[in-house]
Amino acid sequence: MAALIPNVIAMKEQFISAIFETIYMTLFSAVIAGVLGLAVGILLVVTQPGGILEDRVSYSILDKIVNLLRSIPFIILLAVISPLTNFLVGTTVGTTASLVPLIFGIFPFYARQIQNALLDVDRGVVEAAESMGSSPAEIIWRIYLREGLSDIIRVSIVTIISLIGLTTMAGAIGSGGLGDVAISIGYARFENDITITATIVILIMVFIVQTFGDWLARRVERY
Amino acid sequence: MSEDSKQLISLRNISVDFKRDGKDIAAVDDVSLDVNKGDIYGIIGYSGAGKSTLVRVMNLLQRPSKGTVTIDNQELQGLNPQELRNARKSIGMIFQHFNLMKTRTVQGNVEYPLLSQKLSKNEREGKSLELLKLVGLEEYATSYPSQLSGGQKQRVAIARALANNPKVLISDEATSALDPKTTTSILELLKKLNVELGLTIVLITHEMQVIKGICHNVAVMEEGQIIERGKVAEVFTNPQETLTNDFVETSTNVKSAIERITADPSLSTLGDNQRLIYLNFIGNASKEGLISELSQKYQLNVNILFANIDQVDGENVGYTIAIITGEEASIERAISDLQTAGVRTRLLQAKQKGE
Ligand SMILES: Nc1ncnc2c1ncn2[C@@H]1O[C@H](COP(=O)(O)OP(=O)(O)OP(=O)(O)O)[C@@H](O)[C@H]1O
Ligand SMILES: [Mg+2]
């Protein structure tokens, strides 16, 4: 082991904490961006023309915000958003500071994914619910989120995997985590075994998320 | 007004405009319609006539550009959202594509409307099972919609629509995706609900067979307007409008028969003492007898080329095309006597005297 990955062994503790930093960044930003993205995705679907709470103004504002945020490259977002980060977390570097750009980088993407998943819910079923006197809240909970659940799980998995990718880029603002280790140690010091090990750990994480997600989606799809 | 209490649905001067390519198109154009309690009211018309738009106005799924909607003496446009949702619960609706929730079982679908009522789980299950029994599907309670046939899916949709105890059931082409046999069984079910529960039904279709099978009243729609309406037996035995006539003659094969017969060259040489005539009569066999009587009473020779008996709202309607041969004066007398007896006649050959 020591012969195969000498540099990793030499910085064992730092490497393990990098793994936990990646997990922390991914989970924490996934939860917050998840809530935000889900809310915005639902709002986009219900306010769109022909939606159950059609509202052209709200729809076009939300739609533009999502488009705008999605067109900023993440590496630039890291810099552009730093005043907000400073205001919210009191610093612009480090693992916790990276959560702010991660959330803003991923939630618009997730919102679009949710929007598409919910648009796949049969409009006729929504109309049937309206005809039965269901309220908008009931239609969102009992029709959109339920009928769309397996698709929601699938797009959530895609989003979490993208998010793992973004956490590695956050290394540019000293976020820590596996990306940071791979670039600022493995790459900078020509310690290739660190880069490769970090890559393998990330691949394993992606694999676990994907497998769990597929299993969950299939489990709820028992019809 | 006592008149009012008879009416369940009352649409007054309803217009619905849609914008398409910057232009306004009138999907529904100044339609007034009354449906009485306990009626089965059919709305027939070709695709694009505005039928769906009109019935979607009845529960304000479609807000009209003009006009008022009154259901059970309650004007819907005056209601706030919560009140409107309550009003919708008394208006059940079923659809061409069933619109069942794929993630819920058959029973889960029927329970859906009950979720927003204050019922215990047991009460919900009891009520949904009862409804499934009513539509004959209790043994499918735990199946998913994807495991059912089209006719079964529509039965589930009917049970679901009944869960709110609606006063009226609106059916938008509910049998159009079904084969003829299944269509008949669904229509039988609707008829049963009408008789046993006193359920008022508004039914849209483009098939005459459906109207003739169960409706008491009918409205014919074309280009957003109701062009003809009344009792099914009357409208379909004495159609005033070309479109209505078209529906009748197509569905009874009269149209193709007339085309075939009038195109037959051997019939173009009818003599002065011959008439090619189309007869249409409602009701009993005595009128059929009336036709055969022609031969004896007026000494006419009747050669029947086409005959069809049809059931409309429980009444027999006959369609006959025949060549009558005999003395000219007797023929005239026979025809006028037939007309007095309520038989509609139309000469199909030259020398015609109209109706
Ligand atoms: N939401 C809409 N926006 C624009 N035009 C519409 C809309 N809904 C219906 N229309 C138009 O209104 C007209 C009537 O449509 P409607 O669906 O009521 O017809 P229909 O009689 O139910 O036809 P079908 O038998 O095909 O269901 C059509 O010309 C249709 O294109
Ligand atoms: Mg239609």
TrEMBL record, chain B:
InterPro entries: AAA+_ATPase (IPR003593), ABC_transporter-like_ATP-bd (IPR003439), ABC_transporter-like_CS (IPR017871), ACT-like_dom_sf (IPR045865), MetN_ABC (IPR041701), MetN_ABC_transporter-like (IPR050086), NIL_domain (IPR018449), P-loop_NTPase (IPR027417). The keyword Thylakoid does not apply. Residues 11-248 form the ABC transporter domain. One of its GO terms (molecular function) is ATP binding. It comes from the Bacteria. GO terms for biological process: amino acid transport. The keyword Cell cycle does not apply. This is ATP-binding cassette domain-containing protein. Keywords: Amino-acid transport, ATP-binding, Cell membrane, Membrane, Nucleotide-binding, Translocase, Transport. Gene3D superfamilies: 3.30.70.260, P-loop containing nucleotide triphosphate hydrolases. SMART domains: AAA (SM00382), NIL (SM00930). CDD domains: ABC_MetN_methionine_transporter.
